[in-house]
Amino acid sequence: MIKTLLLGTFIISMLTGFGFIPAILSFCRKKNLYDMPDERKVHHAAIPRLGGISFLPSMLLAAVIMLLAFESLTGVRKVTMSVWTVSFLISLLIIYVVGIVDDIVGLGARTKFFFQIVAASLLPLSGLYVNNLYGFCGIHEIPFYVGFPLTVLCIAFIDNAMNLIDGIDGLSGGLALVALAGFMYGFYCIELYVYCVMIAGLMGIIIAYMYYNIFGSVARGLKIFMGDSGSLTLGFMLSFFIVKFSMNRPDFIPEGRYFLNLFGNPMAYEKICLVYAYTLLIVPVFDVFRVIFVRLYHHTPIFNPDKRHIHHKMLAAGLTQHQALFAILGIQLMFMVVNGLLVPHLDITLIVLLDILLFMGINVVITHRINGRKKQPV
């Protein structure tokens, strides 16, 4: 029954997206709302940028319809309004509105960051925060006064990471799909099915969006970008799932509950949860860390946009947009496989260190390829 609920949510959301996005395209044409090409962007034509407006309504509509249908058929109530629920919905709405305003009239990076901090702060204030690092750097349980700022910074950072990596067709959406599939599996294994329903709804609308984003014809006016309304919404949702999945709550997730890792080995939830959650977003998170360090090294403001992100480097190395997309998705999947192999044998600190070294090595290889291309005779 749960699988039917998830499939129905996915299909309704996807079909809603296929109906919603053409209407957004028409609205953008009438109001002249386009993402214009410049020296930092890789597209060469004016493209509508409001695709992300469809994400939140499609997800919520599909989830509500299927949850009500499930309750009607089974008599089992799967959703209850709690302080967490209300805080999450208010925070999500703040991020969604900020993204829309930025897409239509434009907002400065510091203004967006301020609202991200406000939205993120509502979650720990309602009791949802990172309260255990499970041995990372020798740290286990952490108090609220440490978990509060840590949670806020993590949410704002991931939100910006998904926004900043949205630089080529399908990349932000593709990375989000990979992460969402992983979170759905994780929440399903620990029987938190309401989150699986939300994820199914989000995955459905992303599939519809990616069809227009990757395969939509510019000449026919069918191509669209998600804009900040989409990337910020995705980033906030994914950061919420990371905090929720990795939070230590024995009352919700009984101690000793097991689920399967990537290779079928049963492992305790407490052993794998933080590694599992962070692994699903390694590429966008590590990429933003790397870019920040490079900007600091070159004494440039960290909020200034540039062409130092991994997708820019892939293009500079000679890959096409589609090749870069599949290469970056492949890197993300590789990290998931590697960490799935390592987590039964190493503690989280060593795993993170090895991940950093591997990511640095990948970037060294890409940089070497770029330098080699520059030396080639024209």
Description:
- The protein has 378 residues and is mainly alpha-helical.
- The protein has one domain (2-375).
- The protein has helices at 2-31, 55-74, 83-104, 109-125, 144-164, 171-189, 193-215, 227-246, 269-279, 282-297, 310-316, 321-342, 348-375, and strands at 34-35, 47-48, 132-136, 139-141, 258-260, 266-268.
- The strands form 3 sheets. It has a two-stranded antiparallel sheet with strand order 1-2. The chain has a two-stranded antiparallel sheet with strand order 3-4. A two-stranded antiparallel ribbon has the order 5-6.
- Helix 1 packs antiparallel against helix 2, helix 2 runs antiparallel to helix 7 and helix 11 packs across helix 12.
- The model has no long low-confidence stretch (mean pLDDT 85).
Which characteristics define this entry?
378 residues; mainly alpha; 6 strands; two-stranded antiparallel sheet; two-stranded antiparallel ribbon
What is the count of β-strands?
6
On the 0 to 100 scale, the average pLDDT is 85
Report the principal-axis shape: globular
Give, in order, the helices and strands.
HEEHHHEEHHHHEEHHHHH
Strand content: under 5%
Question: Structural class of the secondary structure composition?
Answer: mainly alpha
Task: Provide the spatial order of strands within the biggest beta sheet.
Answer: 1-2
Give helix % range: 55-70%
User: How many structural domains?
Assistant: 1
Distance between the termini: 62 Å
For the largest beta-sheet, the strand count, sense and barrel status come to: 2 strands, antiparallel
Number of helices: 13
> Radius of gyration, Cα only, in angstroms?
21 Å
